[in-house]
Amino acid sequence: MRAQIPRIFLFVLAVVGIYAYVGQLLPQFEEHPPAKTVITAQTPPEELVRAGEDLVRAKGGCLVCHKVTESGNERGPDLRKAAAAAASRKPGMEGEGYLIESLVDPDALLVPGFPKMMPSALRPPANFTMAEVKAVVAYLQALGGTEVTVKVRDEDAARSGSATPQHRGKTLAAQYGCLGCHKADGEGGAVGPDITRVAATREPAELLRKIVEPSAWTTPGFQAGIMPAEIGRAIPEGDRHEIVAWLAALAGKSYSPTGAASPWSHEGVRLGLAIFIFNALMLAALAVAAHRERRA
Ligand code: HEC
Ligand code: HEC
């Protein structure tokens, strides 16, 4: 019996190690969006269209100004009609070329009746590669019911816009309307306070709470009840964490939505430790029982 104990102990240790490792991985599966499609010259057209739709809805922030369904924003033209209109917008330019130009250099031709306000898709906030621009064009062609003609070339995948990586949290803050009321990092509205440095004095947990429960506190000098009470409910948990991670980064702090930066503070590891202690106590009890048995 006694000779078995070290082996049992090692076995328990291995099991606990696996628990801790799996526990460490799980929240990342839950909170991270699916890996985005890498767009290459080989990407089939229907996948290109799907990737383009994701880009328009999320990373591109396009729906802040445009709509792709009956309801939506009308600061810019209805994108359902863009592909059909494209063929005749510019004399001598076919539809595909115009759509690419309208994303890359939106001021080259302003759609009549609309102001100059669209940022180039190659620069922040969208910060697309040419491959991403073409995926969006494929989506616009499919959305408008015209033939998908656009082709991605291998060199399109290289980053051609600004080199600064765009924080996903910023795109999300724009997408969910936070920047309509708040200025952050030099951009946004003035209805609410500038939140560029808010994470310097507020913990991530407080910021997460403020998003789902705006009445949690009221910024001095501002009126309560203006930040929409239900705003957080429409934002998936993972996205709320990403917005807070961005605010933390703006204040020079780091906040990892999964807690992976510090594995020892992680729930999975704590669970593993609890199981370890439990098993160690069981082993001790077993050893005592074996000892008593031999004495009897
Ligand atoms: C800040 C608001 C804003 C954002 C963000 C924006 N757009 Fe625009 N967009 C406009 C406006 C306004 C126009 C019309 C004036 C012009 O042609 O630039 C326009 C024009 C267009 C056109 C030409 C439509 C036509 O009928 O000729 C396309 C296509 C387009 N946008 C796609 C996009 C895509 C895709 C994104 C996301 C990567 C995007 N826009 C982001 C405001 C915006
Ligand atoms: C309709 C306007 C509006 C929108 C949209 C809005 N807010 Fe607010 N927010 C306010 C106002 C006004 C205040 C100040 C009064 C208060 O604390 O409720 C505020 C306060 C805050 C504060 C506290 C700042 C401090 O220094 O105490 C944070 C953080 C914040 N908002 C984050 C967000 C985030 C993140 C979003 C997007 C999910 C968002 N807000 C959307 C209007 C808005």
Task: Chart the SSEs and their pairings.
Blueprint: H1 4-31, H2 45-57, H3 82-89, H4 95-104, H5 130-143, H6 168-175, H7 178-181, E1 183-184, E2 187-188, H8 198-201, H9 204-212, H10 237-250, H11 267-295
Antiparallel strand pairs: 1-2
Helix pairs in contact: 1-11, 2-5, 3-4, 4-5, 6-10, 9-10
The chain binds heme C (HEC) (2 copies).
General description of the model:
The protein has 296 residues and is mostly helical. Among the domains are: 59 residues; 132 residues, Cytochrome c-like domain (Cytochrome Bc1 Complex, Chain D, domain 2, Orthogonal Bundle), CATH 1.10.760. About 6% of the residues have low confidence. The chain binds heme C (2 copies). The site of one heme C has 28 residues, from helix 3, helix 4 and helix 5.
Number of strands: 2
**CATH evolutionary superfamily of the domain at 33-164:** Cytochrome c-like domain
- Percent strand equals under 5%
Largest sheet: number of strands, sense, barrel closure:
2 strands, antiparallel
List low-pLDDT spans.
Answer: 27-35, 160-164, 259-263
**Assembly type of the shown chains?**
single chain
The chain-level mean pLDDT equals 85
Which structural class best describes the helix and strand composition?
mainly alpha
The CATH architecture classification of the domain at 33-164 is Orthogonal Bundle
Distance between the termini: 15 Å
Number of helices: 11
Shape by Cα distribution: elongated
Ligands (ions, cofactors included): heme C
Helix proportion:
40-55%
Q: Order of SSEs, N→C? A: HHHHHHHEEHHHH
* Rounded radius of gyration (Å): 27 Å
Highest CATH level, the class of the domain at 33-164: Mainly Alpha
